[in-house]
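Two proteins were folded this term; both appear here.
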Amino acid sequence: MLAVYSKIIVLCGLLHNTCGDNISGELIPQDAPSNLTLLEIRSRQVLIEWDPVDPESLRGKFKGYLVRTWNDAGSQVYAFPPEVTRANVEFFPFSKNFITVSARNEKYVGPPSEAISFDAPQIAPNHPFTVNVFTLSSASVFIQWSKPTEPNGILLGYKIYTKEINESVPYAKMKEVVHLVNDSDKLQAKLTGLDEGMTYRIGISAVNCAGESNVAEAEVTMESHTSAPPFVPRFIYKINYTTPNRDEVCYKSTTTPIPVEEEKDKDEEEFDYYDYLIASDKKPKTTEASKTTTVPQTEYNKRCIVNCMVLWVPDVKNNPGEHFYVKYKIKGEKEYRVTDPEMSEDYIILQNFDACKNYEIILTAVDGEHSTESGILLTPTKVF
């Protein structure tokens, strides 16, 4: 592990302060290293090289070099011994990076070299740090998680792993089911088809254009459930709901140097972005407006006709219900349009939604024979 020096040492050199009495008689080094060059980008590191300084310019005992890397959000400093003029240092992913190198003696840090800069590539994100699992019934659960603190690129969504824990079966041989969430802003999901009395390990990983994070895990045991009237449900909606074109997001032209591929362990599974696309190719369930014929692309339709996502937010502190459906109508109409019950997901897409008109939306939570309606939510008019 490369040593990281404190900011106090760096600032002393940069500001040419004495940092105490100069008992040793050393002075600030005169020369900056020259020809700082970026050679390779590997994983999360860059390989750099520079020409050594003239020993006569050090004006003290040569202690080595300090390499500084930074972007608009932070910086790092690495120390290397005198004989090192080629080194790997970590970069800040998915941002413009800058690097300088300075020589130092026992007392002072010399002037920095000319800075080099490069557009750092994306790398896999870190995992979500919080995962909470709540039972909705004896066969379904509701999961909430947090965004990764280091997305390290453009987040595409999340993978949910579900594995049944069975003491009679070795963990490595247990069947694992993968559920994909193709929306980086969606931090919840519903899973169904679980077995009463069984314990499950549920894991969440984040996915960006560069790969997949480690998995954060939680366990839940499916208890028996007696149906009861749900508490008043909540929901949110997104008008003009779309998912990004992943090819356009991930493969747009860039000035980033082409990373040098590292040798991969043969046992290591390589992340394949197109595998993710294929596995994710599941069209979201839609509703009524949903079932109408294709709307001609008139000027009005281009400005007003969109998709609207209605996302159920279960009351997990009380009885939330097991599933839901939506009633909606244009303000002033007499009859509500009613969607089919949504049994497996926590959202419904209303297609051919007229954003240029006000809608009244009601979500109904259902638990067995019991149901409870939300209040009426009136959507504003929007023009796109």
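Next, the second protein.
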Amino acid sequence: MSSAGSVQPPSPPRAFTSPGGPQPPAMASAFPRCTSVRLPASFAVILLLMSVTAVQSSQGDKEPVYRDCVKLCVRTNCTGARLQGFESSQPQYMALTGWTCRDDCKYQCMWTTVGLYQAEGYRVPQFHGKWPFVRFLCFEEPASALASLLNGLACLFMMLRYRSTVPRQSPMYHTINAFSLVSLNAWFWSTVFHTRDTYLTEKMDYFGATAVILYSIYLCCVRTLGLRRPGVSSMVGVLLILAFTSHVSYLTFVSFDYGYNMAANATIGMVNLLWWLCWCWQNRRTLPYWWKCGLVVLLLHGLALLELLDFPPWLWVFDAHAVWHLSTIPVHFLFYSFLIDDSLYLLNTEKLGVKVE
């Protein structure tokens, strides 16, 4: 599992012990630390109920053999001439993405511990709230990083298609363009976070995802109420900005509570879900494309079930989170197809002077 510029961890003991004798080590929560908050509401609630407290550490990094391995590796490889040798042989892309000697020790010792677990017949443990993944170049979670990138590219492609298809005079044009930019920002930080998990990239991933959910509510409000009552959508927009500011401030300056973060996003996601579905149902006889919006909402919630199927990564690359992100890529095309149809409909009805529903 090593790569160029990697440190070599010292040989650990041939077996490990767990509190309580020779029983299999207790696994961490079945759900790792939240690697994304883009969970649709109803299934996010299920996840929240099954994992109320945040997972700051896991069975793997609690193991004495792992901790001792890391300490000895750092003491042996990360000082003096050994450290200089590591830095001189480390690939530039690893240095640019912030991989340190200590980080490499943790990575190497993680696989040493995984090997011991498997040799003893125990289930693969998690480390620091995450499953072990094979590092590809500088990518910590290569499949999730690729999936996030592809989601971002799909969003970008459809945003450009929307701009080339829908005239700027359409009532929803600027609101949808702003939504696209918020979504692109979220997928950018999701890609960065899955490439390199740090304090900053984790926060930017979570905050970007929350911004998408809140802006989805604003988009829904503008479409369903704001075209006839602009003052209502303006008030809702102000409230959503205040909610986002408060949310980010609390998580940044008070406590980054994973349980609270999940609950907050589940709540606003539920509002978004019910609002869109009610609008779709009310317009099912007048808008021939209503089903696209309804199907998008249902797909996002149905695909979120993949997050419940948490399992050690296939080939140490594909976990449930990566599969979920990969499965959402086609949804962008369907959702923007709805947005294009609806924007053109609104433009035509505005020209005809027809009341918009």
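The first helix runs from residue 41 to 50. The mean pLDDT is 81. These notes refer to the second protein only.
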